[in-house]
Structures are given as C-alpha cells and as structure tokens.
Amino acid sequence: MKVIKNYLWNVMYQLLVIVIPLITVHYVTRVLGATGYGINSFTNANTQYFVLFGSIGVSLYGNRQIAYHRDDRKKTSQTFWEIYIMRACTLGLAMIAFYIFMLFTGQYKADYFMQSFLIWAAAFDISWFFMGFENFQVTVVRNMLVKILSLVLIFMFVKTRGDLPTYILILSLSQLAGNLTLWPYLRHYVDMPDWHHLNIWQHLRPSLVLFVPQIATSLYLSLNKTMLGSMVSVASAGFYDNSDKIIKMVLAVVTATGTVMLPHVANAFAHGDKKSVHRYLYMSFDFVSFLSVPLMFGIAAIATAFAPWFFTKSFAEVGKLMMIESIVMLMIAWSNVLGVQYLLPTNRNKPYTFSVTLGAIVNVVLNVPLIMIWKTNGAMWSTVLSEVAVTGYQLWVVRHDIDIPRLFTNLWKYLVAGAVMFVVVYWMNLHFTMGYVMLVVEATVGAVIYAVLILILKPTVLQTAKMFLDRRRNK
C-alpha cells in the first residue's frame, strides 16, 4: 500500500503542477505576449544546459543509491554527503561557466541573470534523497506551498510586458525556496559523515553514466527551442514550449509512477526479489497504458479550439502542435516504465543510456531538415519520432527478459475506448465554443465514455484495482 500512497501523493502534486501553470500561462501569455513569453522560453532553455551539466545525473543515481542503502543509516549518511558534496562542486563550476557565458551574450542579459538562480536552486536540491526513501509526502507538501506562493506573486507583480525579468525571478526563486525547505527534514534520516573516509569522487563515474541519457533527454526540449529561436523566431520557440508544457503537464500524472516505482523496484532488486521486479513491470505497463491512451486522444480532440482560447489567437499554431505531440504521451509512458522503472533500478545503465542517446541522435539528425521544411511543426515531428525510437529500442532490449505480448494484452481495449471518446469529443470541439464550462463538459463526457467502455471491455487493470482495494479493506 506504500506504493499506492506515494503515487497518490505524487499525483496530487502533479495535478497542482498542471493547474498552476495552466493558470499562470493563461495569464502570462496575455501580459507578456508571444515575444516576451518566447524570450523566457529561449533563455530558460539555454540556462537549463548549465543546470544539466552541473547536476551530472545525480537525480537518478542518487535516488537509486539511497534506495539500495536506506536500511543502513550509517551507509546512507555517508552516501548522501558524498553525492551531495560532489554535485555541489560540479554545480559551482556550472555557475562560474554561466556567468562567463553572460559576459559574452549580446541579448537578454537581465533575463539571463534572473534565470541564473535556477542553478543556485539545483545546488540545494535534495529531493532525490527523499525519493530514495520513498518519502514523497515531505517533498510534495513543501513544493505545493511554494507553487501556490509563486502563483500569488505572479499575479501581484507581473502586470506589463516590461515585467518579464520579474516573472523569471519569481519562477527561479520559488524553485530555490522549495529546495531549501527540504533541508530541515534531513536530520531525521542522516548523521554527519565520517570525514576521514569521505570519497566523493567514487560516485562521479556512475553518475556520468546516467548523465548521458539526461543530456540526451534535455535535447528533446531545450535543443528544439534553441534551434527554433535561432532558425525561425523566438515566438516559434514559445509556440513549441507552450505545446510541450501542456502535454508534459498532463503526462506528469502518468509518469508519476516512474518516480514512485524506481526506488521501490531498486530496493526489491537489492534484496534479490526478481519475481517482484517483473510483477511490478507488467502492472505498471498496463496501468500507464490505461491512463495515457485517453489522455492522448483527449488532448488531440480539444487542441485546435483550446490553444487560441487559452493562449489567445496569436498562439493558434499551438493547437496543431499539441495534436502532433499528443502521440508522445503513449511513447513516453511506455519508455518511462521500461527505462526508469525497469532498466535503471536493475542496474542496466548501458541499454538505458543507449536508448535515450539514440532518441537524441534521431532528434538532432531530423531537426534541421524538418524545421527547414515545416518550421515549428517539423521540430514537433522530430520530437515524436525520437520518442518512438527510444521506446522501440527499449522493447527490443528487454525482449528476452519479459513476455512482450503480455505487455500489450489490453492495449486494443484502451485504444478502442480512446478512439470512440476522441470522435465524440472532437465533434463537440468543432461544434461548440470553447470556454471554461465547455472544457469541463468535454473532459467529463470523454471520461464517462472511456470509463463505460472500459467497464464493458474488462481489461485486467480492473482486476488489479480490485485486488489493491481488497487488500486495503483487509488491513
């Protein structure tokens, strides 16, 4: 039941992460305009490179290592401090490099300076530690409070197009504040390390192994926005960013399973319980398919009317981008299970790294010609094809470990239910004016249609849900 509790905490947070950006984006795109919002997307993408290189894969590596050793307080304490100090050093170098970069950049200096606090925020991020202990409540509650505070500050201080630096500063400092609030809880889990036996650099090489896929993953978003900003316009980078934000915010409800299951599977693997590892894999894959299919069809169904209503007519192009990008929801859901929930916890870093690197190569190779031909649409198709490559390779890698057909046993049922839902909701999208009420009505109608068809088709996810409910009642 701990997994379910952690998942519900994570979903609660992810729902807040969805709602607050939806509110802020709806407001900010009107205040800052397409160009102002695009500048934020462009400068943020470039800043994230420095955050990424400074973090060197610790989020995944640290999470897994803490899960391995969490039953031994002394080992946990030593491991935490070694990993944290190493990461602080590398982020310090990233900070120096970023300020040197600022000296040579000709545009957006004030905006870049405000973005620099994201690197400071990363230096104090220890959420990976609590995830390793499967304590999601402490991270969720604190981040929820910070998100709400940032929302209030945005409405208070972002009033005109000239408030772009203020908007960026609020986002950056809120992230820093959220990370700082986790530190007081650390004393319940770790003690001071044995300084004489501190060996921080032993973690560098294994962190770098997981750093490669993180670099590759960042290319899907950051590189696309950078190339669009340079080859097309900063407004196009903003269009891409808005589409990606909506898709990834909704998808976060599905990928929350990966955050929860990684330390759980890692701990089972550390204790030699391979049977449980495989059982978790089949259950997670079926569950994310059950969730991601209706989300994919639902986003595609409402996209063309949603974008100009939500972002204003100047962002109408975002609707087409959302329809294209909705495809990645299923691909990312599957690769999240295969990669983050299976390959990483079982210490199969090389195939995971290669899969994500393959996706990055596909993305880079296709980006230039597709952007030249179709501009922003081309960048989005490049993203879709790169995710298909990642998922396809991971399926090929695990083909001898698991029963591949078993993974897709219920998929046809989800696709049939999702397709019927799409037809009805898309018809409503074409014949009714989009607004808050209509958005809720369309979402409700879609959910009811999908739920009814699922009850008729009876996939095994219903049996799994019943099993967990029975266990909860018996406790």
Structure commentary:
It is a single chain. It contains 19 helices and no strands. The model has no long low-confidence stretch (mean pLDDT 86). The chain has helices spanning 2-55, 58-69, 73-104, 109-115, 117-123, 127-132, 136-157, 164-180, 204-231, 234-270, 274-311, 317-325, 328-343, 349-374, 376-397, 404-407, 411-431, 436-457, 460-474. Helix content is 83%, strand content 0%. Helix 9 (204-231) runs antiparallel to helix 15 (376-397), helix 10 (234-270) runs parallel beside helix 12 (317-325) and helix 12 (317-325) packs parallel to helix 15 (376-397). It is mostly helical and 475 residues long. The protein has one domain. This is PST family polysaccharide transporter. Keywords: Membrane, Transmembrane, Transmembrane helix.
How many helices? The count is 19
Report the structural category.
mainly alpha
List low-confidence stretches: none
What percentage of amino acids are in beta strands?
A: under 5%
Sketch the topology as an H/E string, one letter per element.
Answer: HHHHHHHHHHHHHHHHHHH
Shape: globular
